[in-house]
Amino acid sequence: MTMADVIFSSWQDEVVDNREVAADAKSPAKAKLLDEFCPGEPIKAFIGWDGIVVRDDDVDIVGLCAKYAQAVQSESCGKCFPCRVGTKIVSDILNRIASGEGRPDDIGKIKELAPSIRDGSKCSIGQTGMVPLLHALEHFSKAFADVIINRRKSADFNYRYSVTAPCLSVCPSGLDIPGYLEEISEQRFTQSLATIRKSICFPGTLGRVCVRPCESSCRRTNVDESLSIKYLKRFVADYEIDTNKHQEISTQAKTGKRVAIIGAGPAGVSCANYLIQMGHQATIFERHLEPGGMAAMGIPDYRLPRNILGREVELVQELGVEIRYGVQVGKDITFAKIRADYDAVFIGVGAQGSMPMGVEGEDQNYEGYISGVRYLLDINLGRDPYPAGKKVVVVGGGNVAIDCVRSSFRIGKPDVNLVYRRSRAEMPADPVEIKDAEDEEVKFHYLCNPTKIIAKEGKVVGVELIRMELGEPDQSGRRRPVPVKGSEFFIEADIVIPAIGQQLDFSFITEEDGIKATKRNTVVADPEIFETSQPGVFSAGDCVTGPDVLVRATGNGKRAAEKIDLYLKGSKVEPSLNEHFRNLFATLGVYNEKEHIGIIGGLHKSHLPMLDPLERRWSFAEVEDGYTTDVAIKEAARCLRCYRIGMIALG
User: Fold this and answer.
1) pLDDT band at residue 243, thresholds of 50, 70 and 90?
2) Is the pLDDT score of 469 beyond 50?
3) What would the pLDDT profile of 380-398 be if each residue is shown by its tens digit?
4) DSSP character string of 261-314
5) With bands split at pLDDT 50, 70 and 90, how would you rate the model's confidence at 4?
6) Is 158 helix (H, G, I), strand (E, B) or coil?
7) CA 383 to CA 230: how far, in whole Å?
8) Which of residues 355 and 143 earns the better pLDDT score?
């Protein structure tokens, strides 16, 4: 089934009506839907915030609208009169019509009431909930009239619905963002933190280092500026610390099942956190002497203070999770032994190795040539990786590269340079981090790439570079850098740091263990259920995706825990209905950057106060202060509460 097979669509006010059109003349619809919801369940119709899409003549439009109105009414928060009362009246009328008891004036009542609900509701439940109903009454008037006149009952269909929001739909952890923002605006800070912890166990950590895809899909952007979703998360996490309030987290009855987790990074700790709440015992094996993985070893204190991350792991341990530090799987205990001793295993190791640059001299073990991951690890452990070095060149354009240059100032290196083979526009690092590095006066060298590490007497003295120009786009969608012949030049340096990528070390897994790996040396795991080639062994995080963002690792750690729970119960291990809806909404697209919101703007985002750039670059003190209570409440109140409901008809 393709979108050209659509019978009718009114999505985003683009009406496509193929009901009386020849098959070879049908127009495609704007809305993009999956062919199937679950395997073997074709989607016959969709009704939601921006309209209706009908794919099958069998769909009963009256029954679809009645069920949708019922869903809208059930999700109304009841805080405003038009939505609380109006949706109940509309739902009752449509249910009456669908039951074969419609009255001649029912359609007129809905047409009169629905616009006032749409225009008078304070949030998107009421504002968008009436939109597809009005579309249906306009374009399917004959169907409604026929049902009322002939007092015909609507046909039975399998309807399912889910609630989403533009920000929520792109959050890798599926966090209820409008919910926790509303609780902050109502000064219910503890409840807000509880809402966050349903989806993530690192609110203070992600409140500092999340790459915030949610803010790029915030409808408030269409008015003035996006909400400061990330820093409001930090606010409630810090509030708990400042007020010394310890939130109680309930756990289910013990099941007696034991799960081993390899790696105490974000994915592993997240997986353990939710497994323990489900009643299973979780034991983490961690080769380092502290938790956090790359979040602890690779993110400097000025961005993520160690005590914040450490405290959040301690809260997980207080639930009953055991972490065995200083245990290297493959050396201190074999993977086979772990599999034999536990009911299930989760692999959550991070990408803690560095990719080679492939340039002359990098394999000569020169003093001053240090990988980005090792450089940051030493700094985070309180060591200067190379005290003799003062002139630093970092190669790369990601967050690790930015962390390396900014950390270099903080350990007393006065001359700090970053080399990147593309332009600033192509840099994958967080734009905010790039701007902060620029403010701290890191020297950026764009469109150049190293060709040779220069050394004397076994010590780095500089790096030879070549100019680059941008050619055609590569697989990443970015324009491919091409060397400019004869443009070589030299930068003096006594420390050269490659930070062009990270790789994983799976030496703890033997061929006999039967865990399949990709050519990229990542674990082969089902993207929907996280199970590897061995039953009962699951994996998520960097070891599956390659180096990725922390919020996705925590989110997938939680999702993996849900699949492990199904496995331990002997149930079929499959995606949840919520996950299927997330896939559907991702295909459809929830945020419309061209939408006209129709409200007055001017309430701009509240930014965190920061230390002066030229002062902070010499200190590992956190560069930003958190929100005050008044500012947090004001910022959270900017949220438009953009919940919207999508429903499918499956036949």
Assistant:
1) very high
2) yes
3) 989 999 999 999 999 999 9
4) EE--SHHHHHHHHHHHHTT-EEEEEESSSSS-THHHHTS-TTTS-HHHHHHHHH
5) very low
6) coil
7) 31
8) 143
What is the third-level CATH fold of 258-352+504-574? Answer: FAD/NAD(P)-binding domain (3.50.50)
Most distant CA pair in the chain, distance: 96
**Helix H segments across 303-423?**
306-318, 335-341, 372-380, 399-410
Sign of CA pseudo-dihedral 370, 372, 373, 377: positive
- How high is the mean pLDDT of the chain? 94
The architecture in CATH of the region 3-166 reads: Up-down Bundle (1.20)
Q: Which two tokens stand for residue 120?
A: 């008078």
Orientation angle between helical segments 306-318 and 229-243, nearest 10 degrees = 70
Tell me the fold of 354-503: FAD/NAD(P)-binding domain (3.50.50)
Q: Is 513 helix (H, G, I), strand (E, B) or coil?
A: helix
- The CA distance from 29 to 410, in Å, is 55
Question: Which pLDDT belongs to residue 3?
Answer: 45
Residue spans per domain, the chain: 3-166, 258-352+504-574, 354-503
Of 125, 120, 147, which is closest to residue 136 (Cα–Cα)?
147
- Residue-wise pLDDT for 513-539, tens only, equals 999 998 888 899 999 999 999 999 999
SS3 of the chain: helix, strand, coil, percent, to 5:
40, 20, 45
545 Cβ neighbours under 8 A, 6+ residues apart: 522, 552, 556
Q: Do domains 3-166 and 354-503 have the same CATH topology?
A: no
